[in-house]
Specification:
Strand order of the largest sheet: 7-6-8-5-9
CATH topology of the largest domain: D-Maltodextrin-Binding Protein, domain 2
CATH class of the largest domain: Alpha Beta
Strand content: 15-25%
InterPro entries: Solute-binding_3/MltF_N (IPR001638), SsuA/THI5 (IPR015168)
Number of helices: 12
Organism: Streptomyces nymphaeiformis
Family: Belongs to the bacterial solute-binding protein SsuA/TauA family.
Pfam families: NMT1
Largest sheet: 5 strands, mixed
Low-confidence stretches: none
Mean pLDDT: 97
Number of strands: 11
Structural class: alpha/beta
Shape: globular
Number of domains: 2
Distance between the termini: 24 Å
Protein name: Sulfonate transport system substrate-binding protein
Helix content: 40-55%
């Protein structure tokens, strides 16, 4: 069997794994091979699993919930440790917005459908506001930071090297620290047929992810050089961002499932997904 692994820039563990050869080594021991399917939008991971484009993928917390809402039969395989400083919601230093409640009526740039939707929706819900009606969420792009600094938008969710660069430049203030609202874990998942019929493959891929994370933790400068050369930005900003990540792969826990269920309930209540989701349905069935 050739196992197709999806890889996109927003999942740092898979991004570096795709360059290190550990997945190939682990699956070769089982007599299997690996190919990589690069794509740009992690939100499409569930659809890519469902249509057979990929066999295994990883994202932030929101895409697996939206995948379930779309009817895709996914199974969680592993998660990262929490990433409390992976991202933040920023406002201008002189903005009158001092609390989440002050976002009401504003425009927020974010990666819609990513973990950033989970962050903003949960923060608003905690403040008694709605993601659907109390802000205007807009998909962020390369011009989001400039628009925020010019006062054209209310807030912007930044992550990784972009966040490090924005903080280095100054003039912006953190309104929401990710770790104060959600755990923001990387999440790895696959199709049910692969999870339940070939669990040894899932175990091998999890070992490979752990090896890749161990390498990145031990070689932050080299990892930063790889990312900067491929994705842009400075090596220094990438090193700052990568050092803020936990580089630890953990088992799926009841605590994680509960957090995902809270997100799923908020998404359904606000109309971000059009059907209720039972997150525990994305666990392997007991034999």
């Amino acid at each position: 069997m050739t196992v197709v692994i999806g890889v996109h820039r927003s999942n740092p563990s898979l991004y570096h794994l795709s360059r290190l050869g550990y997945a190939e080594e682990e699956l070769a021991a089982l007599g299997e091979t690996v190919t990589w399917h690069p794509y740009t939008d992690g939100v499409r991971t569930g659809a890519h699993l469902a249509d057979g484009t990929i066999d295994f993928g990883g994202t932030g917390s929101t895409p697996p919930v939206t995948a379930q809402a779309a009817g895709h039969d996914i199974v969680y395989t592993a998660v990262s440790a929490p990433r409390p400083d992976h991202g933040a919601l920023l406002v201008p230093e002189d903005s009158p917005v001092r609390t989440v409640a002050d976002l009401k009526g504003g425009t927020v740039h974010l990666a819609v459908g990513s973990w950033q939707t989970h962050l903003v929706a949960k923060a608003l819900d905690d403040a008694g506001l709605s993601y659907a009606t109390d802000i205007t969420p807009v998909r962020g792009d390369s011009g989001s930071e400039a628009k925020l600094r010019a006062g054209e938008i209310t807030a912007w969710v930044a992550q990784g090297a972009e966040l490090a660069a924005a903080r280095r430049t100054g003039g912006l203030r953190t309104l929401i620290r990710t770790g104060d609202v959600i755990s923001d874990r990387s999440v790895f998942f696959t199709r049910r047929d692969l999870a339940e019929q070939r669990p040894e493959l899932v175990e091998a891929l999890t070992r490979a992810l752990r090896r890749a994370d161990d390498w990145a933790a031990a070689h932050p400068r080299e990892a930063a050089e790889i990312a900067a050369a491929d994705q842009g930005g400075t090596v220094e900003d990438w090193e700052t961002a990568l050092k803020a990540l936990p580089w630890t792969i953990e088992e799926v826990t009841e605590e994680f499932i509960a957090e995902q269920q809270t997100a799923a309930d908020i998404f359904h209540r606000t109309g971000f997904v059009d059907r209720a989701v039972t997150v525990a349905d994305a666990l392997p069935r007991k034999a």
